[in-house]
Amino acid sequence: MSTETAQTTTSTSKDNVVCLVGMPNSGKTTLMNALTGGNFKTANYAGVTVSLLRGRSKPEYGTPRNIVDLPGVHSSVAPSPEEELAVEVIEGRHSKVKPDAFILVADATQLERHLKFGGLVGRQGKPTVIALTMVDLLDRTGQSVNALKLSNALGIPVVPVDPRTGKGVKELFAALDGLSGMLWMGNALAQVSSEPVVAFKQVQELLRRSGAVTRGAQPDSLTSRIDRFVLHRYFGFPVFFLVLISLFAAIFWLAQPFMDLIDGAFAVAASSVTSLAPDSVVMRFLGDGVIAGLGAVAVFFPQIMILFFLMTLLEDSGYLARGATLVDRPLSYLGLHGRSFVPMLSGFACAIPAVFAARAIPARRERLLTIWILPLMSCSARLPVYALLLAALLSGAAWQAGIALAAIYVSSLLIGSLVAGVTARIFMKHRQPSLLAMELPAYRVPRWWPILRMTWARGSAYLKRAGVPIMIVSAVLWLISNFGYVPGAPIASTPMERSFASELGQKIEPVLRPMGADWRVGVGLISAFAAREVFVSSMAIVFHVDSDDEQTQQENLLDQMRTATFPDTGQKIFTPASIIGLVVFFFFSLQCFSTVAVVRKEMNSWKLAGLQLLFYTGLGYSLAVATVQTLRAFGVA
Amino acid sequence: MDPGSRPLTAVALNKRVRIERLDGPHQDCARLLDLGFTPGEEISVTQWAPLGDPLVVRVRGTLLALRKREAAWILVE
């Protein structure tokens, strides 16, 4: 990945690089979509965790250019990591991205703020055009903006665009073409002070003299009306919970048929590869190790795409910021941020997209704390594990398991909150909470194509960043479960019982005994580090369950588990106490190397990722032992 | 000190008031200034969140959610 990044960056530095700059919610990314025809990808740069969008402009807009969409900048004072990167690029201090020209994206309804930010761009003395967005919202605010007058006053071309329909994009490029080649003569924005009080006065004066803006001074009536409802004292939270429930329903039920389809397809692919040459270790490795590993990544893809799609939809419509406003009070009490609800919610699908979603939190401290507690959110990979364990524990009615599962989900949220609050108060108390000051953008009817395009960009970034570690881990785990020491030959293909994994399981059995588990469960726990749900399939392997039919496989496994005993003592392994212990272990333990890898990358810190792994897995183990021993002390076997 | 100044949190809903000065942690106030909360500017509180915090403030044509403690740093005439 690093080589690819290096290549693209060296090639662009020679080319014509146009940077899209602006404040958040200015419609920058939608414009990016229109300029490139959706042909862009996320690019990461070594050392920073912020990704930029880059792509080439459509040929119908003249000479193709390299377009880079920089993160939106609210303010360069006490900046978020995203803002810092954007300012660095704008000021020409970034080592890789060197802008040759700027497209300043400015919201026509908020020219004062957006042109004040434009001062930073104007001072760079590079060819700049202004793309005037949100022109259609001017009706709602009772204003009108004359682009020609504004352009004359600024000395910069001002082109009204509607990035959602592509209107004005051609003219925008024509204006940019008109600039390049001639010497950039300077402009009124360059005179705007870097000191905010002076700068706002200058911009106000500039706008007044230009006569470009008629101020109706009417607040956006539609946005006010919707806000009165969604932030209402009584209706606000019911609406919010309705949105959350719909999200959950979509993530779980809507994704299910697609997940089954993918799961089935990979199972068929794996078994057909293996059956090509059943005795060949290589084929078995390809089938059961590599293809099945790929399947473990792909099976979550529908969930993650639906999640990204709905998140982008909520963000673009303007509701996300309102939701964050509603829950900021309890979350900030825990040391989190209003926006933390997005990654926390995503964490119930999978911790990996949740870690990416934490980028929406502007403040470093709150972002760190949110990522810290994400492993506690009950991700969907835990679901098959809980389903198996609860079926073994409550052999009765399904409703009991349902209630137990609901309790697990609610507890994961409560305990996550507790851990956040405690961590914030003990380990982060020297750090001041950061400013909220969150913009509530005007509500807009979302456009599907830009949202789908963004969803795909985010989803494919996920596949790239999470897919590789998951595949490597599952391949390694397959190898250690299928190879072992055999006298004579140092390493050979062996059955599971004599593999490195079982050897490892037997080595750690003394550690597992206090939580009521034997080495076979240990093998399951170790293999679950590839992905938690792998626990179920490895249990089936170590307990010798053979059946092609999945339904009866689960039944057979449950039968095996009910009768399994410790070889030395003859006592049952799966007792209520030990099963509850396992549930507790899965609840807390960070049994997911992919999450560790992604956190490492995102926070650029092995220390944090390692600490998280040790803390949660240690906590899971201690609490599992404590639970089992306490239950036994009270007479529960 | 002007006896007429009070924090933004004490202002009635939708009443347009003029910012007198900011009084809070230096870094945070610098960002608030940069976001447009400059002395002399007219702002109004448009809404309080259901739990009584944060509040929504209209400033320079946009809406910003501020926590109560942040809004209390903004002193208005």
How many angstroms separate the termini of chain B?
11 Å
Uncertain residue ranges of chain A = 1-13
- How many structural domains does the protein architecture of chain B include? 1
CATH architecture of the largest domain in chain A: 3-Layer(aba) Sandwich
Classify the fold: give the CATH topology of chain B.
Answer: SH3 type barrels
Q: What is the chains' assembly state? A: heterodimer
Radius of gyration of chain B: 11 Å
Structural class of chain A: alpha/beta
How much beta of chain A, percentage-wise?
5-15%
Q: How would a textbook summarize the main sheet of chain A?
A: 7 strands, mixed
Shape of chain B: globular
Low-confidence stretches of chain B: none
CATH domain class of the largest domain in chain A:
Alpha Beta
Structural class by SSE content of chain B: alpha+beta
According to CATH, the fold-level topology of the largest domain in chain A is Rossmann fold
If you had to describe this structure to a student in words, what would you say it looks like?
The complex is a heterodimer of chains A (about 625) and B (about 80). Chain A has about 625 residues and is an alpha/beta fold. Chain A folds into 3 domains: about 1-215, Rossmann fold, CATH 3.40.50.300; about 235-255 and about 300-425, no CATH class; about 470-635, no CATH class. Helix content of chain A is about 60%, strand content about 5%. Chain A is built from 28 helices and 12 strands. Chain A has helices at about 1-15, 30-35, 80-90, 110-120, 140, 145-155, 170-180, 195-210, 220-230, 235-255, 255-275, 280-300, 300-315, 320-335, 340-345, 350-355, 365-375, 380-395, 400-425, 450-480, 500-505, 510, 520-525, 535-540, 550-565, 575-590, 595-605, 605-635, and strands at about 15-20, 40-45, 50-55, 65-70, 100-105, 130-135, 145, 160, 215, 440, 485, 490-495. Chain A has a 7-stranded mixed sheet, with helices on both faces. A two-stranded antiparallel ribbon of chain A has the order 7-9. In chain A, strands 11-12 form a two-stranded antiparallel ribbon. In chain A, helix 6 (about 145-155) packs across helix 8, helix 16 runs parallel beside helix 27 (about 595-605) and helix 21 crosses helix 23. The radius of gyration of chain A is 28 Å and the shape is elongated. Chain B has about 80 residues and is an alpha+beta fold. Helix content of chain B is about 20%, strand content about 35%. Chain B has 2 helices and 6 strands; from the N terminus they run E-E-H-E-E-E-H-E. Chain B has helices spanning about 25-35, 70; strands spanning about 5, 15-20, 40-50, 55-60, 60-65, 75. Chain B is globular, with a radius of gyration of 11 Å. The model of chain B has no long low-confidence stretch (mean pLDDT about 95). The interface of A and B includes residues 228, 232, 326, 328 and 440 of A. Strand 10 of chain A pairs antiparallel with strand 5 of chain B.
